[in-house]
Amino acid sequence: MQALDVYAQYDISPVRGRGAELWDAEGRRYLDFYGGHAVISIGHSHPQFVEALRAQIERLVFYSNAVRNPVQDALARLLGEVSGCEHYRLFLCNSGAEANENALKLASFHNGRSAVVALRGAFHGRSSAAVQVTDNPTLRAAINQGMEVRFVAPNTTDELEQAVRTDDVAAVIIEGMQGVEGVIPMEDDYLRDARLLCDRHGAALILDEVQSGYGRTGSFFAFQHAGIEPDLVTIAKGMGNGVPVGGVLVHPSIRTWRGQLGSTFGGNHLACAAAIAVLEVLRAEGLIAHAERMGAMLRDGLSAVPGVRELRGRGLMLGLALDGPAAAPRAALLGQHGIFTGSAARDDTLRLLPPLTIGEADVREFLTAFDAVCSSHSWSANA
């Protein structure tokens, strides 16, 4: 048996990491400006994180949700404190796709409706309901059909109002900042309009913060820049710094009851210990404010790099729209300079999603390498 071929892969196999650095078996060092799809929030092998996992493994790795789990309770309290969402309730699962599945289900349970409004360019996961609200038909099999989904353009209030004004919309689902599409920010006024429209027409507002949450944009959640309160917030990726864990924050206005949701592995002791360690490091090291500062440093440096047509995003969630396809510059960054970056659905866009612990020296190293790659690249050949 062999592993199923899922992603196109570079012929590189990191075996250890520390902070924003990785090394392969031959000892070559890499700088991680992608964080494994924005998962590595507090850096590879952070000492406090490693010790928290070691201590929990020695105590108890798992027992089911049939018993009380004090580590789960501690995580819920700490997440409320650090995020500023103390009045929400927390359902724990294992991934972003699961979080979005359960948020959609909760919305439908709440108002008894079945249609969903999603945005063009959205990515919410590959499981049954999540993939239906993902704007990529190639990911949907015949079995992933049946739910009525209305796709509207992001940041366009008129289209959103037309789609949500009927009485059958269970939820509007919006990424705090579209990631896979190429880092497309949601305008603050648009999110405020979405909140008002959902209130007016009885739909639940779901904010998918799977990629944009956990301090990456300079606030704990991207939606907090707009000063709104969603009905449901989905989280994962940076939540466990590589340990699989996800969740749904449920506003008090959403009706719930016992037996509505469930998960065998969700909220297990080890995953909760990892998630607690992430929050403790985020708070103790001031990483949310640090992400904003490092993001500003990146933006300043990138403004002078040839070939960068547009810079999108906030904090350490940045999309670089280039003057041509991004594949060759991205490959050159990795092959010539040992720097990991991310691709996007838009082939002209390169994504930067580094650990929030990156320092000024890391930023300078990236900027120097990226300037060298772009300065030597023949953009006209890719126009």
Tell me about the largest β-sheet: 7 strands, mixed
Arrangement of strands in the largest sheet:
4-12-11-10-7-5-6
Q: Rough shape?
A: globular
Percent of sequence in beta strands: 15-25%
Spans of at least 5 consecutive residues with low confidence: none
**Strand-pairing-aware structural class:** alpha/beta
Tell me the CATH topology of the largest domain.
Answer: Aspartate Aminotransferase, domain 2
The N- to C-terminal Cα distance equals: 43 Å
* Series of H and E elements: EEEHHHEHEHEHEEEHEEEHHEEHEEH
CATH class of the largest domain: Alpha Beta
CATH level-two architecture of the largest domain: 3-Layer(aba) Sandwich
CATH homolog superfamily of the largest domain: Type I PLP-dependent aspartate aminotransferase-like (Major domain)
User: Rounded to an integer, what's the Rg over CA atoms?
Assistant: 21 Å
Task: Work out the number of β strands.
Answer: 16
Number of domains: 2
- Enumerate how many helices there are, as a single number: 11
**Average pLDDT score:** 96
- What is the helix fraction of residues, given as a range? 25-40%
Explain what you see:
With 383 residues, this protein is of the alpha/beta class. The chain folds into 2 domains: 14-42 and 288-382, Aspartate Aminotransferase, domain 1, CATH 3.90.1150; 47-284, Type I PLP-dependent aspartate aminotransferase-like (Major domain) (Aspartate Aminotransferase, domain 2, 3-Layer(aba) Sandwich). The protein has 11 helices and 16 strands. It has helices at 35-38, 47-59, 70-83, 96-111, 128-132, 157-164, 188-201, 269-284, 287-302, 327-337, 360-376, and strands at 14-18, 21-24, 29-32, 89-93, 115-119, 149-152, 169-175, 177-178, 184-185, 204-208, 232-235, 246-250, 308-314, 317-322, 339-340, 349-352. Strands 4-12-11-10-7-5-6 form a 7-stranded mixed beta sheet, with helices on both faces. A 4-stranded mixed beta sheet has the order 1-2-3-15. A 3-stranded antiparallel beta sheet has the order 13-14-16, with helices on one face. A hairpin with a 5-residue loop joins strand 8 and strand 9 (184-185). The longest helix is centred in the C-terminal third of the chain and has 17 residues, at 360-376. The protein is globular, with a radius of gyration of 21 Å. The chain starts with 13 loop residues before the first strand and ends in a 7-residue tail after the last helix.
